[in-house]
Design brief:
The chain folds into two domains: about 80 residues; about 250 residues, Major capsid protein gp5 (Major capsid protein gp5 fold, 2-Layer Sandwich), CATH 3.30.2400. It is flat and about 75 Å long. Helix 1 packs parallel to helix 3 and helix 2 runs antiparallel to helix 3. The longest helix has 29 residues. The protein is an alpha+beta fold. The strands form three sheets. An eight-stranded mixed beta sheet has the order 7-8-16-13-9-12-11-10. The chain starts with a helix and ends with a strand.
Length: about 400
């Protein structure tokens, strides 16, 4: 049955635009996954162990679900991709034409307005918007974080740690002076992120080539991969600082500028019984004001583990998206898959839960710069493409972690 499902999903993936068919097959695979996991649970209850074939089938179904979701997301992204220059021949402007001439032939006339002091030229605004838009679609942390565009290299954000003191008084009583609120200033420096796509002269000479679309296609995957790694675990040196790189303390000892965690009580594993209870505890470790827009963040292997969990009524806590292009949910909250999250291991924090829009800030400096290099890798032409991006935690109370440790 698993092989048939896999073959069907691969065939659907090969059929352009057949997202509906792929999603139907995905839901069928999830139903088969639930039946197989139910069999595994019965085997555990009866014999205290599971059949190796059942475990193998469950693992293969997990892989099928992950692969199908990735394929559906990819097709959805392709379908939603905006058209640039080639799709709007009547909406050309002088700068876009000049930029295309620079990319194709190295012509620099009429480009001085977009020049960079360090060399190279700014891409047209439509291309920059397409790059940022697709980064939000394929970079999981950017998609759920706050994003701010700035024109300087450092964004400074004041944060009120405590509000002014207030109190009740009688109508004619004296009003004692209240304490001032406490303000913290957080710096978000931007660092240079680069990609260097290459093209042949013959490719660039092709009149049908949309250079704006080509640049966006070439750099987006590279930018998104590097960004996500930094947003999760970056050390803040020449890159954004990830939320897992912040100091972590047990939730009972939480203080500003630290990320609170709950421990599973077992080193490198879930609790021996009632495994999903620690997920419930993590949800309610987050204050009510943050839970409304909270998301889970974990990698594919961790998601495969929580996919097997049920509530007291036998309902699966993990549920697939209700439509193609949507997010799976865990206990009713969106689940975001970020492969840079660690695997389950001793003292690891592979699961994060929080309101990332309030908790994490991505800072984009305006402008994407391209420097044409026809000399370094002949016969190829290199395009040194850069953007400046920063990031870091802006509200340390909005994100909580699950740590696989005794305490």
């Amino acid at each position: 049955m698993t092989d048939i499902l896999t073959d069907r999903l691969e065939n659907k993936a090969a059929a352009p635009g057949d997202i509906g068919g792929m999603f139907a097959e995905f839901m069928g695979a999830f139903e088969e996954f639930k039946r197989t996991n139910d069999t595994r649970i019965v085997e555990l209850e009866k014999r205290g162990t599971t059949d190796a074939l059942t475990e193998e089938k469950l693992g293969r179904l997990n892989h099928v679900l992950d692969s199908a979701k990735a394929a559906i997301d990819r097709l959805t992204l392709e379908r939603n991709r905006p058209q640039l220059e080639a799709g709007r021949p009547h909406d050309q402007d002088e700068y876009k034409d000049a930029f295309a001439g620079y990319i194709k032939r190295g012509e620099e006339k009429a480009l001085s307005i977009g020049s960079n002091a360090d060399g190279g030229y700014l891409v047209p605004s439509e291309t920059e918007a397409d790059i940022l838009g697709r980064l939000a679609a394929i970079s999981p942390i950017r998609a759920i974080a706050s994003v701010r565009q700035v024109s300087s290299t450092v964004y400074k954000k004041p944060v009120a740690l405590t509000g002014p003191a207030v109190g009740w008084v009688a109508e004619t009583a004296a009003r004692p002076q209240t304490a001032s609120q406490t303000i913290d200033l957080i710096d978000f420096p931007t660092a240079e992120l680069y990609a260097m796509p290459a093209a042949t002269s013959a490719f660039l000479d092709d009149a049908a080539v949309d250079v704006g679309q080509w640049i966006a296609d070439e750099v987006n995957a590279a930018f998104a991969e590097q960004e996500t790694t930094a947003f999760v675990a970056g050390n803040g040196t020449n890159k954004p600082k990830g939320f897992l790189a912040e100091d972590q303390v047990a939730e009972a000892s939480w203080a500003w500028d630290k990320i609170g965690y709950l421990a599973t009580g077992v080193s490198g594993d879930w609790p021996a019984s009632n495994k999903s209870d620690v997920l419930i505890d993590l949800v309610y470790a987050l204050k009510a004001g943050y839970r409304q827009n909270a998301s889970w963040v974990m990698n594919r292997k961790t998601q495969g583990a929580v996919r097997k969990f049920k509530d007291a009524d036998g309902n699966y806590l993990w549920q697939p998206a209700s439509a193609a292009g949507g997010k799976a949910t865990l206990m009713g909250f969106d689940l975001v898959e970020a492969e840079d999250m660690p695997d389950i291991a001793a003292a690891a924090t592979p699961i994060a839960f929080g309101d990332f829009r309030r908790g994490y800030l991505v800072v984009d400096r305006q402008g994407v710069n391209v420097l044409r290099d026809p000399f370094s890798a002949k016969p190829y032409v290199l395009f040194y493409t850069t953007k400046r991006v920063g990031g870091g935690v802006q509200d340390f109370d909005a994100i909580k972690l699950l740590k696989f440790a005794v305490s």
